[in-house]
Amino acid sequence: MRILPGLLSALFLASPAYSRCGGSFDGFVQDLKSEAAGRGHDTEAVDAFFQGVRQDAQVLKADRAQGVFQKPFIEFSRHLISQNRIDRGRAMASRHAAVFDRIEAEYGVSRGVLLAFWAFETDYGGYQGDFNTRNALVTLAHDCRRPELFRPQIFAAIELYERGGFDPQRTTGAWAGEIGMVQMLPRDILENGVDADGDGQVSLRTSAPDALVSGAKMLSGLGWQPGQPWLQEVKVPGQMDWSLSGPGRHRPVSEWQTMGVKARSGNLPGGNMPASLILPQGHEGPAFLAFPNFDVYFEWNQSFVYVLTAAYFATRLEGAAIYDAGNPQPGLSGPQMKQLQSLLQARGHDVGEIDGILGAGTRAAVQAEQARLSLAADAWPTVELLNRL
């Protein structure tokens, strides 16, 4: 499900070693072998690891076919969240209550957060992917789109192989190289794998305790604040400075309250807690306050619509009501979104790839142009904005 997978690996900076890509696939593999030997890996183990490696065209196809992320939040969230997933999530919470109690005590990660990832990544472990993990990683490292993300994972997989925790011929997972119930990349497993069931092995594919506790440890390492909230639905006033909204634009909760932002149910956290106002489909659609833990989600996945849906689903699993969808203005079609991105890019905005996805760069550019044109600067692109541009 991840659009830019990589947890800890996503934090790696590109280096000349990681930027080598393309060219002959066989030559690329020989280059990997040389680098692995240079890193101190046993040459016989390296040869065995790469024996039979092949380029997987289906991995490249999957990497380029992620149209689901073009859907707006309301449609995307309704696509992923069903009553069946909610019921199963609550059943899993009951079945593994002792594990979640341990996680909350040791790492401070609420059970709903991990249940949501478990549901979205593998449908509670039911489908973990059948791509050969080694082939997927080598294929994506050879491809020149994001070699800095995937090349380090190959050497981590070699280390797992040397430790007996990876079979290059049989280990399978998602197309982007993630393994197990909550989909962790090899380096993440090295850094955060936990033998939670005490059987002497870290088994993320077959052991729910291992997978869940490992995921919690990873989130903790990424900066999760124990016992803190991550997202809460709110009601917004009819008029306010919408340019203040957006992920990462933190203000104390008390300031948002002064501007007329209210909890839809219950109470908001203490007045000094920083929060950002999230309006996924503009000021006439759903509204949320996102707290610092929400930012940690972007280390798991860089898709805004996926992150918000996962964070919201976590609140649903812990008893929150279905969000108020409001009455947002119609959004843009895929071709219209690409046209908008091209126009924004021509005006000097960095929107990244022209892909029709309303990502962080496109949202920031939309908001800037809305403010310039005296439109409601809520980062939701409309036909009116497209026409004005």
Automatic annotation (TrEMBL):
Keywords: Signal. Residues 333-388 form the Peptidoglycan binding-like domain. SUPFAM superfamilies: Lysozyme-like, PGBD-like. The keyword Lyase does not apply. This is Lytic murein transglycosylase. The keyword Signal applies. Residues 25-314 form the Transglycosylase SLT domain. It comes from Ruegeria sediminis. Residues 1-19 form the signal peptide.
